[in-house]
Amino acid sequence: MKPERYRQRFGEQVRDGALAAAAATLDSWLARAPQAFEPRLHRIQLNLLSGAYQRAHDAAGGLMSQSDCPPELALETTGCLKAFALHDTLVAWAQRYPWRHKIRAQDLAHIAVNLSAVNAHQLALEWADSGVAKAPTDPVCLVNRALILTYLGQFDRARADLGQVIAGSPHSAMAYWILARLDRQTEDSNHVAAIRQALAAPELAASERAFLGYALFKELDDLGDHAGAWASLQTGSKAARVGRPYSRATQELLFAAIKRAFDAGIANNAVGGDEDPVPIFILGMHRSGTSLIERMLGADPEVCDLGETERFSVALQYAADLHCEQTPDVSLVARSARIDYGLVRKVFNESARMQTQGRRFVTEKTPGNFLNIGFIAQTFPHAKILHLRRDPLDLCFANYREHFGAQVTHTYALEDLIHFHGLYRDLMRHWHDRYPGFILDIDYEQLVREPEAESRRVFDFCGLRWQASVVDVTRRVADPVSTLSSVQVRQAINTASIGRWRPYAQWLGALTEAFPAG
Q1: Percentage helix, strand, coil for the chain under 3-state DSSP, each rounded to 5
Q2: Angle of helix 37-49 relative to helix 19-32, nearest 10 degrees?
């Protein structure tokens, strides 16, 4: 049977839920072609669907040393390695892959984004350049490269790519969204008319409408048109909610399960070597200042700042042998007492040992890890936990005005934000009671008003030697930042974000009632 027929049969069986039959199809395929790459890649997918997370993870890493990846499967392969947080494996693969020139241009662009997601930004740019070289006017190639260039602080090159996109395809939503973020718009230089024209296009996809709505909000906000900006924000947030329902009941069950699980006095069984770096977990709600703290810490040569990764999430799923759409979920929490936390630690450290390069500390800046503090305490009792707090009005409005990824569902309606913030605040009180002294609270407002004093406190808590230069974050303009703060954290520390909600107070009744301003 030809590969096309095996592929078709396997796909149909997976869609029908006939996993045993799908496994038999892969066995037959491999019996006829023992060295074939594609059925081995499909085996990883099948293992995940069958609930065998450890087998899937190990097979993903082993596949790279056993077989050569054909160019047409390169994108799927890198996506698989990124999903399993196999940072070193992905970087090594991208450095030595011999047939980059045979990969489709748009696949090259998407592989570049996968590389940037594991902090390999310069390598990502090389792959993005290859995509643009192959298809110089392709909007996907240009937008993806522009995104990576913004992470690298190469804003002029990013503007050039995005300008070329909107000149050739005036309805490119993501291009306008990135452009709006790169600069403060003025009466003489803005894209308001063009974005409005793009929004008027018939049959606009919800994802495009969302990007355009948030872009128009940013530009009108810069111009001081708060009524127009608010209307645009409603357009963007409404479109962003499509397909992303926020379930209060589900969240309440999860938060309650976490609190119960880590009231039980789980014994720590994590074992690690002295050669492992000390992890610094920087967490809190989004837009609370986590990027700024990591920027300061990364100025120390003993610190490897890896940004936001899925390494801890993947390590937990591996030790629990459980695949979760979002980590943690109730099923993972239910297994918390049976998890081998030494294995969590091993998987976490091994996934990026090459990237950490023997440094004493490594940062993990995924904000949602505040849900995982109990797991972290069991895995890394010597870890440093930095919790960023912020005035609830500013924090919730800062979340509401941003377009996040698909897994963030609580930021697109004020009532959902208020509900989630209440759960978050209650859980943080629980962690402080459960692990006294393990978490350092950092108030964003105090950090930007008194950066020297607050950064000293942070460095002391982490066991690092403070230097005055750490508060001059503009010294690190060339260092990558792969978050929504990539422009903001390259500016001198300032208090401009305090009170950003005030011009919109007349529309924020739900927030101002929930969090009366002091």
Answers
A1: 60, 5, 35
A2: 160
